[in-house]
Amino acid sequence: MNPTLQTSRFGWWSLLCWLTLGLALESLHGFKVGWYLDVVHEGRRLQWTLAHSHGTLLSLVCLAFAATVRATEATAARHARAGWCLRWAAVLMPVGFLLGGVFAMGADPGLPVVLVPVGGLLLFGGVLLSAQLVRADDGSAAPPRAGR
User: Does the model's pTM come out above 0.85?
Assistant: First the structure.
């Protein structure tokens, strides 16, 4: 499958999931649910808020990737690798926060939070590859410079 289309589909479905989580968290807050708002659960609330915000942002990063990076024959493998890194970063980082909140031990996140730095490394790699892909673009779509 085309990496651009794959990343675009992933981005839209992921955005829907993380926005739904955000609505659920707002509902818990709006209805003043104690097991979410009580001070003893502040660590859980923080982890879940981080999951929602990172998931939403990384979904948008995937959509930006799909909208801006064009695959050519010369860059197809790097394009697929960049999309793979960004999609996995968009899964591992927010899921690490989400599960870190589920298994929170007081103010400390649970062990699944170790997924966050792994996702961060994948995000770094995906952004680096994407930047190289944009830089490697032949510039044929760019307008010619005036005066030359």
Answer: yes
